Each structure stands twice: as C-alpha cells, then as structure tokens.
Amino acid sequence: MPAKFLPRMLESFGRPLLDFMEESGRLLLIFLQTVALVFVPPFRIRLIIRHILEVGVRSLPVVFITSCFTGMVLALQTFAGFKRFGAENMMGSLVALSITRELGPVLTGLIVAGRVGSAMAAELGTMRVTEQIDALTTLAVNPIKYLIVPRFLAGLIALPLLTLMADALGITGGYAVAVYLLGANPVSYEKSTFNYLEFEDIFSGVVKSAFFGMIIGLVGCYKGFYTSGGAEGVGRATTSAVVVAMMMILISNYLLTALMF
C-alpha cells in the first residue's frame, strides 16, 4: 500500500509544479518575442492608438471614481487617527504620499486588469477558437506582431498616464474632504501636501504603473492566445487572465518597492 501511495503523492505535487513551469516558460517566451517585435516594422501606429483609447480613455470613469473616493476615505481615516496625537496638520502629506507611491498605481493597475485584461483575453480567445489566428498565420501575418504588440504597447503607455490622473484625483478628493468636511486649514493642508511630496514619489508610482501595464497587456493576450476548449475555454481564459494579472501586479509591486526604496 505505501508503495502505491508514494507515486500518487509525488504526482499530486509534481504535476501542478510542471504545469506552472510550463506556463511560466511560455509566458517568458511570448514576452521576449513581443519585446523583440516592438522594434520591427510595420509599426501600425493607428492600431496602437486605438488600443490606447480602449485601455486609457475608456477606463477613465472607473479610475476617476476609485481614486477620488480612495483619497476621500484616506483623508477621513487619517484625520481620525492623527487627531489622537494632535498631528492633523500632517494629514495632507500622508494622503499625498500614500496615493502617489502605492494606492494610485496599484489600484489603477488592478482596475484596468479587471476591465481591460479580461477583454483582451476574451477577444483573442474567441479569435483562437474560431481559427482567426490560424488564418493570420496562413496569410503570412505574424499574429504576435499584429495582435499582442499593439496591446502590449497600449498598456505600457496608457497606465502611467492613468496613474498620474489617479494621483491628482486622489489628492484632490482628500483635500476636499479635509477642508470642506473636516474643517482643516486649506493653506496648512497645501503646505503639508507639497512640502513633503518629492518628484521621486511621483516618479516611482509612474514606473510601477508602466510595469503593471506591460503585465496586463502581456497576460491578457497570452491567456487568450493559447485558449482551447471552445466557448468554455474562453471563459476560463478570461477568468485566469484577471486573476494572474492581479497576482503578478501585487507581487511585482512588492519587488519594485523593495528595489526603489
């Protein structure tokens, strides 16, 4: 009995590990091919701009609501905590630093991963199961160059811009709550915000968001590109794209923070 149990136990641990390594290897290969093809003509500027509009402009409403109310909630929570120590005048700096360093890029990345990453996976997955990607190959069109590179570049360009807008909206929302709801002095709040806020704080968030944009575009396209199993497979790929992209964003956020600070 133990002789039969041991191989099964090893298989139960080994198979998921092999699947993970296979997925990681394929993802790395498609990433390297995508980066290499970025510099190979034709560049298809119109297609890139179209995807930037999809990733960036159409994500503005949800980013606006999320960042603005995050700044407002952060101001409320900060006031409640700092009031115990008589440090309400430091509220603006904490809100600004929290938004620009972490909450702005991370929340924007997670939101766009849920909205855009799923759409990319569903679109490319549908093309895969309906053999449209195979048709591109038959027509001598590189599917990675035509389908993945524009989306990859769109994420890389749009996410930093969205993060800058999220930073501004979050700080504005915190200012509105602090000044008009909690009665903070507007001059001291502005001084507290900008005296301690440095360019490095904003720049680090923008750099993070660029990595998050690449992750969203790459993972969403990868999951859709290798979809199998018909309509059910498209659903699995869409769900997996969102989950994997969010996990990679959170993990890479820690690694980037450790490197930059």
Describe the overall structure:
The mean pLDDT is 89. The chain has one domain. With 261 residues, it is mostly helical. The chain has helices at residues 2-38, 45-55, 60-82, 91-129, 132-138, 143-181, 186-196, 199-225, 230-260. The chain contains nine helices and no strands. Helix 8 (199-225) packs antiparallel against helix 9 (230-260). The N and C termini lie far apart (54 Å).
* Structural domain count: 1
> Which regions have little confidence, pLDDT < 50, spanning 5+ residues?
none
* Largest sheet composition: none
Number of continuous helical runs = 9
Distance between the termini: 54 Å
Q: Average pLDDT value? A: 89
Task: Kindly provide the radius of gyration, computed on alpha-carbon positions and rounded to a whole number of angstroms.
Answer: 22 Å
Fraction of helical residues: over 70%
Tell me the number of strands. 0
Residue share in β-strands: under 5%
Provide the structure class: mainly alpha
Order of helices and strands: HHHHHHHHH
Instruction: Name the shape in a single word.
Output: globular
Helices and strands, with pairings:
Layout: H1 2-38, H2 45-55, H3 60-82, H4 91-129, H5 132-138, H6 143-181, H7 186-196, H8 199-225, H9 230-260
Helix pairs in contact: 1-6, 2-6, 3-4, 3-6, 4-6, 4-7, 4-8, 4-9, 6-8, 8-9
